[in-house]
Task: structure prediction
Amino acid sequence: MEFGPIVRAMLRNKVRFGLIVAEIALTLAVVTNCVALILHARGEMSRPSGFDDEALVRVDARQLDTSYRDEGRLDEARRRDVEALRATPGVRSVMNTNFLPWTGGGSSTEVKPLGAPTMLRTQVYATDASVSATLGVALEAGREFTAADAERDAERLRALNATRRERDAAGKVGAADRYLQDVVVSRALAELAFGPGPHLGQLLEDSDGDHYQIVGVIDRFYNPYGWPIHEYVMFYANHVRSYEGGAAFLVRAEPGRAAAVARAIEERLRRPGEAREIQVRLITDVRDKFFGPQRLVSMLMGSVVVLLLAVTAFGVGGLTSFSVTERTRQIGTRRALGATTGAVLRYFLLENWLLTTAGLALGGALAVGLNVLLVSTVAGAKLHAGVVALGMAALWAAGLGAALLPARRAARTSPAVATRNV
Amino acid sequence: MLGYQLRTAAKSLRRDPGHAGLVVLGIALGVAVATLFSAIHHAFARDPVPGKSGSLYYVRLDSWGGDKPHPHRSGLPPQLTFRDATALQRSDIPARQSAMFKATLNVFPEAGQPRRQTARLCSADFFAMFDVPFEYGAGWDRKADAGPEPVVVLSREANERFFGGADSVGRRLRIEEREFRVAGVVGRWPVSIKFYDLTQGAPSPEDLFLPFNFVRPMQIRTSGNTDGWGGSAAPGFEGFLASESTWLQMWVELPTEERARAYKSFLDAYVLDQKKTGRFPRPLHTRLTPLLEWMDEQNAVPPETTAMMAVSLLFLAVCALNLMGLLMAKFLSRGAEIGVRRALGARRLDVFVQHVLECELVALAGGALGFGLAALGLFGVNSLAKAIVLRGDLFRLDLAMAGFAAAAALAAGLVAGLYPALRACRVPPAAHLKLQ
Amino acid sequence: MLQMTGVKKIYRTELVETHALSDLTLRVREGEFVAVMGPSGSGKTSFLNVAGLLDAFDEGQYLLDGRDVSRLSDAEMSRIRNEKIGFVFQSFNLIPDLDVYDNVDVPLRYRRLGAAERRRRIERALEQVGLASRMRHLPSQLSGGQQQRVAIARALAGEPRLILADEPTGNLDSLMAREVLDLLEAANERGTTVVMVTHGSECAARAHRRVHVLDGKVVEVEAAPSLVGAGHGLAQAVG
Result:
């Protein structure tokens, strides 16, 4: 229809219209990159651990009494704690472990299949009971640990640590002093080490030369870690208690009872005459705290996106309004020459649509450029075409919406202004 | 003349307060967002020891074994073994030095419940090296390091907890089985990251500081990261101290390039010497990293905050573009007056200066308002962050941020106003005189 | 005082060229009071713009006060406008949010005069137009005639050699118009050259001489009969 004249008129007012184009372009670039970051963070946050997070409670009980440097006393306290936890109504399962999901860390070690050239890093934790029962994951193959396993292995480890072990030049212990430990591993680790299987009975060795035999495989396991070993884990049987760190437990509650169980545990573990610090945390809270920074970033980014869209819509509206006011006489003349209200409305909306489209085309390129820059220099999430398309659609709508009011005002211009001596 | 133009600009603003208000608001919004995100970035990125961070170095040695380099980006373990840290501390090249680690200790106050407190074991030099401010007393002297003498420095919070915030210098405090004497209480220490220990996340300084040499007599274990290989040859705590476990941070202050070079040679010589005993199986690799570089290497500034700062500056740019439109509309609608002034002898430059001044006046007002809004926003961000880091004072607006806000406002005013002012001064004197 | 020779002024748009001034030649002597007359579109305003250095011209020569002003920079033209020329417009062109005093002050500010000197000049100029008592009034609080008198005071305060008046009485009733013309005449009697563009013959009658412009050229020059004898200069018109 009237593309030609509109474009020619715009080219004669480069700056005024260039402003709208630049503003739309910048806004698209910023908004899409922010949304990409938000989506990336959301993706991280919604990744399932594989555990029954909603039912899990972490309990830390620490003795504030130097007489607990004695291991026997510590073990006694741990035993009583386990009993008290098991007896708490609503508790399904308890394990004494140093594993605390959703903290972004934990403990790790390096192992490799016997005779393989390179070490594999994996998370490693101790437990005194069934991992699958407490975490709520599936035991895919083999068996798990019992309290008796923990008792036996703890005793063996204690004896081992009390002796001096002979080592060769590479730091490896000799065959006579070698230790063999049973482990339950995640399927991801088993497959990383031994391919599709079979996994049960396979041997791993660490840098000391000690051996680990796979006796069970669980699935699935995902716990974010500082190194990219989120899905690899190895559990061994032992007790977790020390004077400095206290004893730690993971408790799985009946569905929906985690909060009530957490409250009850605080009561039950407080024993008269003992100076203890009891810390009870819902894993959902731990998880929330872990994702706190990301959630905060998402929220701040989200606010910037909303503000930016508002400012841009306002700005485009203002500029259009200005250009309508400036052209009142011209519009009047058009009306006097026979343009209908609809034609004037159409003219301004079309003009705006052209500007927005030009801005979006430029902005698309700018968005990709900014994304490349962000990804290469600081943390950035890769921009997906879908996000850009969505951003374009949103800005198209915002631009059109912003122009609607001034355009309608233009359309109402009386043809009489043409003859008025302004 | 400038005064006259300033008054003229101010008058012109008063003529249309609605328009001026809109521009002020626009700048304020842009400046608020830019300042807010810059303050967040600034909290992590600012130099924690201004003036001397260049002479503070983090020490690393490649004591790793096995067939692969250490998984840290640098290929070096980020911490030292106890054997190496104690050996290195015997050097007299550094002006100051401290090996250190974080522990968790039980404190038994005279009154009230025992409490678990975080502690840092370090040397006397720690306080002078990092310019730690003191509310009461001071750190301990080097003589106390050697003893070690049972002296402790408390954080403000710990002093509040155990002594009700009073001047507790000289008072006694039982830590584990021993009585310690309070040597000093740390004052307001505006650090947002624990820059002296970037091997773990916690942002706040510890509750207690005690002489490093209590490690052995009190058998204090680290509550930070331990990263080792080769197991322990001997049983018990002594076995742990003698092992290849790395768990200590080590800082040295080397005031001149020359001393830094000398210390680097010392490190190399130390490692070569150790190699003779069969330790340090990997190729010789030692590193002295200046504080700010180490912060950079450890991503002390979360990359998201940098990204957000970039985004916020673009936001400010969009605000400025918007205002450019508004200002253009205003200046051009004032063509008649500009024409009269030009006819009466105003030069283009006079008109230009007057309009730029007008933009900068609004920009400054917007900057001030924006700074206030940023303070409000930071209050919100701080209270949200408190749930995560247990500190409500992580982000602050300081003088540097006020300067940033002013500069951002003036820059935005210039970006927004330069072109409209240029257009205004190009208005021909004859254009609008006839019609009004 | 003012000598234009073969001055041409062409307005160009993409499609048309309009010859606003084509070969205009006119000479005004020092101390003269000249009325430039002509119908709408004859080039009066273009003449005034060029004469007042408000607008550049394309060809010809223009000597103002003996100085060739054809090729001056914008800043130099601004200075000459400020120091040598006083303007009086049909629509007064006072700055609406400056009071009377500050309006008269505007050109003096751009001349960078000291505060005392400015004050002296403003007060004297306002006395001359009889508005010394209205110094702190805003233009909107004054009648049209008073506003035009302020504009004249603004022109006089600069102590210009030349006053250019553009239909100064066009927006005024006859009583006020007479007052304005009296003031211009008084200024002229004190030695200031006055060039007034007008199409009203009543106004023109006050001038020593009337110049008729048509299609951007001077077509006729006539002396006011009552003043011919006074020897107030002689106009020449060359085709």
About this structure: Chain B has a mean pLDDT of 90. Chain B touches chain A through 63 residues (CB under 8 Å).
